[in-house]
Amino acid sequence: MGDVLAGFHAAWEFGSDSLLIRYERGIRTPKLFQALGERRIPLKALQGVTLAPGRRGTVVLRAEPRPGADPLMDAADGQLKEGSDPYRLVLSAEHETLAGRYADELRALLTDPGPADRHLVAPPDAPRRFKAYDAKASFDGRAVSFRWFRTGASSAKWKAGDQTFRIADLTGVEWRSPELFEGHLRLLHRDGGNAGAGGPGGSGGVGGSAVGPDQDPAAVVFGLGYGPVHESLPFAAAVLAAVRSSGAPATAATAPAVHATRTARRDPADIAERIRHLGELHEAGLVTDEEFALKKAELLAEL
User: Fold this and answer.
1) Which of 99, 108, 124, 92 is nearest to 233 (CA)?
2) What is each CA distance from 174 to 137, 193, 201, in whole angstroms?
C-alpha cells in the first residue's frame, strides 16, 4: 500500500505491516490527538475496519483495535467521546469511494481477530505528570507519586501523607474520565488492599475500591479543569503498560457512576468541599440536576 489518506484532524499512512496515524496540531483538533502526536499501529493489533456515514457530508473510516492490544484504549475502557476516538478518520463524503478501497485493502491484511495476550501498540512515553484536583501526579517509568494539595486533598489523604507506588506492587489502573461524574485515577494493588507505599517511613493508609476516590490515598480525583483527558488518560495508559511489562496480570477498570454510601463518618470540612466541587460541575453542565441532588444527599448522609 504505502499511500496516505488525509482527513479532518489526522492522516493515515498505510504500510504493509502497520498503520501510521499522524494527528494535526490545529486549534480545532481534539487535545488528546495533539498530545498523542502520532501513533504507529501494527496491523496485528487490529481486528477490523469499518466505513460508515458521518455527520454533515462526511464519512468515517474506523480501525477496530483488538481488546488488550492498546494500553490507551484499555485504560479508556469505552469512555472516550466519539470525537476523541484516536482510531476514527473523518473524511469528506466525496472521498467515500477512495476510503472504501483503502478499507478493503486493509481488511485483507488483518489476520489476528480476538483479544491480544499483550500490548502490541507502544504506550505513551514516561515520564508523565499532570495536576489533579487534589494532587500532582507523576510517573517516572518505575513508580507513581502523588503529592497532595493542601486546599484540595481530603483530611484522610493529608494525614496519610504523600504517596509513592512501585509498579512492581500494582496490578492495574482504574481511570474514570474527567468528563464523567466523579472522574478519578486509582491505582490497584497486587494484594487487593491499599496501594500506597506511604510517605517517608509510613504506610499507605486506606485503599481499595470500597473507599471513595476522594478518601483513598491510592487515588487522585479530577475536577473542573483538573486531570483533563489529554493528560490523565496517556498517564493511565503509560502506567498500565508498565504494570503489564513487569509481569503482573494488569487490569484496567472503571468505577461505577455512583459509589454506594459508606458507613464511616467523614470530616464535615471534606463533605463541604466535595459539595462545593459538585456545585461547580453542576453549574458547568457536567452534572445533571438529578445527579447533583442524588450525590449531594449521599454526601450529607455521611455526616
Assistant:
1) 124
2) 14, 14, 26
In this model, does residue 75 exceed pLDDT 70?
yes
Residue from 124, 96, 120, 99 nearest 46 by CA: 120
Digit-coded pLDDT (tens) for 228-259:
999 999 999 999 999 999 876 666 765 554 33
Sequence-distant (6+) residues with CB within 8 A of 227 are 130, 131, 132, 133, 178, 183, 184, 185, 220, 221
Say if residue 268 is preceded by a cis peptide, omega within 30 of 0.
no
Whether the bond into 30 is cis, omega within 30 of 0: no
The type of residue at 139 is F
Q: Between 274 and 51, whose confidence is greater?
A: 51
Structure-block grid coordinates of residue 271: 463533605
State pLDDT tens for residues 41-57: 999 999 999 999 999 89
Single-letter amino acid code for the residue at 84:
S
- Are the C-beta atoms of 106 and 49 separated by less than 8 Å? yes
Complete edge-to-edge strand list for the sheet that includes strand 58-65: 46-53, 58-65, 88-92
**Cell digits of residue 104:** 478493503
